[in-house]
Amino acid sequence: MTILYVLLAILLFGVLIAIHELGHFAAAKACGVKVEEFAIGMGPVLWKKQGGETQYSLRLVPIGGFCAMAGEDEQSADPRAFTNQAPWKRAVILAAGAFMNFVLGLVIILLLYAGADAFRAPVLQDFMEGCPYESEEGLHQGDLFYSIDGRRVYLQYNVADLLARGDGSYDLVLIRDGKKVRLDDFEMVPLEYEGQSGKMYGFYFGYEEATLGTTLRYTWNTAMEFSRMVWMGLEQLVSGQVGMQDLSGPVGIVDLMAETGEQAESTGDALYSIFYLGAFIAVNLAIMNLLPIPALDGGRIFLLLVTWLIEAATHKKLDPKYEGYIHGAGMVLLLGLMAFVMFNDIIKVITG
Known about the structure:
The protein is of the alpha+beta class. A hairpin with a 2-residue loop joins strand 6 and strand 7. The protein has helices spanning about 1-30, 85-115, 155-165, 210-240, 250-265, 265-290, 295-315, 320-350, and strands at about 35-50, 55-70, 120-125, 145-150, 150, 170-175, 180-185, 205-210. The longest helix is centred in the last third of the chain and has 32 residues, at about 320-350.
């Protein structure tokens, strides 16, 4: 089954790329920009077809893709060239790829949740006997955890994760009878309870019926939790808690998806886990592509804003080739990073 999971992972990864580039393509067409080529993959062309003014192609290496627009990094006399469009149009086109990745993530999560009967909720259903945190001034049955120390609780497991990050004294915000209730400096530590094998906080969580509204809310909350996980990963990378060797590229992602499928107890569980991971990667790609780094969409949007401010102040139009140089240098560095990550991924796969 491993080869099937690998092929499924490659297909899913290719869909993530195709959806991203499709976002740029659709936005460019909607804004009247001339698209010269729409490609999935990089490297030598495997297949191509001319459709009107646009060449559609499939390339050999299934990592990446592009939507080549007229006048993208150079001056052009064509009124439909990218650089001749209003700044807001260019920003919309650049952001559309990340937007489509995020929407795809939401759609995958929604489809996965569509068959659910109920969701495990961060709602206090009951307390263990002797739990000291149930009181008039403390926690009540039916309380929904809204935030802990200023961090939103999106899903039930967030409660344990956020409590583990604290020092035993927490600023809690609860939803009680439809209203927000604050418990500042609320002291809470794991304790031993009769019949339990380890220390715990002493309360049980409940479930919410999977109505349409609840399913949509949990879909959104899961996407928000994925987003937070991405930002936390970036914080750990910047702070040095994780190193460059811990990064994964396409090879590592495909291997992780295949491994996830192999470890599942059934084919149904494997598919669920792979697509759940695919939804996380879709949200991850959306956020990463909007970082203000040259060659990424976020870097292009950032430099677009800088260029617009300079042109507004000087009343002179800047030559887009200089921005192209910056993105070219960024692309070289990005490709170097991708090569390093891919090499590490291959070594990890070989050494197992």
